[in-house]
UniProtKB/TrEMBL annotation:
Name of the molecule in the record: Carboxylesterase type B domain-containing protein
InterPro entries with a match to the protein in the record: AB_hydrolase_fold, CarbesteraseB, Carboxylesterase_B_CS, Type-B_Carboxylest/Lipase
One Pfam family matching this protein: COesterase
Keyword Membrane: yes
Organism: Tetranychus urticae
Entry-linked PANTHER family: CARBOXYLESTERASE (PTHR11559)
Amino acid sequence: MKLDSCKLFDGLFLQHPKDPLLSKLVLVLFILFILLTWLVPCYMGQSIYPQVTLKQGILRGRPMRTEDDKEFFGFLGIPYAKPPIGPLRFKQPVPHPGWSGLADAWTYKASCPQLDTRGVDTGNEDCLYLNVYTPSVERTPFNNFLYPVMVFIGAGTFETGDSSLYGPQKIMDKGIVLVTFNHRIGLLGFLSSDDESASGNWGLYDQLLVLQWIKSNIESFSGDPSSVTIFGQGAGAASVFFHLISPLSKGLFHKAILESGSGLCDWALQSDPWDYAVQIGQRLRCPITPRDTLIECLRVVPTLDLLRAQSNGKILGEYPIKTVPVVEKGTTNRFLPQDPWQLLTSGIVNRVPVLIGYNTQETLFFYPEIEQAFREESGRAHEKLTSDFLDCCTPFKGRSKERVVPLILYEYFNKMDPFNSTQVASRFIDLSTDALFISCIDETVRILWELNLPVYLYIFDYRGQNSMVERIISKALIPVDTGPSHGDELFYIFDMKLGTSRNQPFRDKKVSQRITSLWTDFAKFGYAPRTVTPEYPRWNKFNTNHPTALYIGGSLGNISFTKTREAQFWSKNLKNLSGINPHMLARIRQARPLYKTLAWTMIGVSLSLLIMVILLLSILFYQRRSSSFRAGLQNGSSHTPTGSSGLY
């Protein structure tokens, strides 16, 4: 049966012709019905799928929900740079020109090229995308509130990383705008020819472009461009440090959080980038000289070949890590113009509050190598591990290594049963954690304190349901009394998208609530907690005269920092005893090209002198022979017998 809308209309309003008031009421209700039918879906469409307008174009995001079931919005896979492919490989990023029309920002984009834990290549060179999460994009003259912005720089030893791993569901309960992103890693992110051909630090320049993009665009997402906190873990923490000292990053952020890393760590800076570039060129059969020819050859090498080349030469687990930042040479307006230690100690630093710390057993990721060493050399595993560790992860080589080995063995393995695998593992984890993380973090906080920067130190010591180290080894093979490993705190800040992630019990959720509250309070106010309570004690600034740290475990509390001796054993004592003055390392690295030039000059001069000496000796020898020959002729003619002429 066909419904005639006109008859329906007549029926509604002509049914009671003698009651005009009722007819008017029905008319008003009918109009309201039509308005609700058409306007509500339109309004809901804008609310559920919010839109923002940028200089690049229009974006449409999608709704998401926090762990506490609050709504927020995600804008995923926003391009911030042109794909760094072809002629743009090994060059600074070029801002993305934008798009036409409306673009749906609903899905994550590919990570940058890398090898996963199984050695399988993943990702794509077209990877320079970012994600923005915001509580709201609706701004009116009556509601113009802007949220503090937190920018996370991912972990991964400068060789791996994927922004899609860091789910925002935990931290978005705290009233902030969160930005995550991909940047170039490995050779594609950090190859350097140590001159203007390829100055390096491409991954850091990607990060810089993200911060510039945020300054220009984040207000469209209800983010406050005058309240930006950068935070990172591991290699991401070292990156945060480099932004602290880079003149190019000035004014782009206002607080900094460094989790388990610093630019002063030995693993965070490549001391001889040209030597490493030569190794890569030889592996891939590229011409080594001139340098620009090597770079042009590597620019067209398939991505997988580059990944395989950078994975060669590992000694202990993922170490050594050679695709890392460098001090740039041969260019102007450089991101890292001098050695980090020199820049920091000379006071060249972006003066912002700093929160920094470490996990108590960072290097549990060495456990597979510890077990292998114990199987191969039971009773001497600690000696092999120490030797391999010095080769892969420290500046101690050759004679300097010979000098420090006995000191290290005595410091960490004295009065220990060398056949007890648990003892060997525990002490080697202490050794490597002190050397790789605690020593450089200790040095960083002390220098920042001397520069009068507000700096807050934490120690994370909670082992919960999830652990990063369980991605590479079964929990059954790890001692049950171990503490948190490198990256474990991330499970309490983000909803980590890893196959090993498990649902958190109540105690884990409390730790998560505390650490996200501390981190976001710091982002909002420059200190934490905002309000002191029995659960959230006052977090004292670091003071080198009375060093303290906030202990983050099953509860929170201020404790004395007791690792000073171990930290300085690595950062000062060993380097002094081995002949490596820690305060001269930066100058040596900075002056190395000059020393090489002088050395080759001296060699050239010496060879020239040697050639001149040989020529002079040859001339003298020739002259003496000529003189002897002439003298012989003269003597021979004066003593010839008188009758000798009759022989002819």
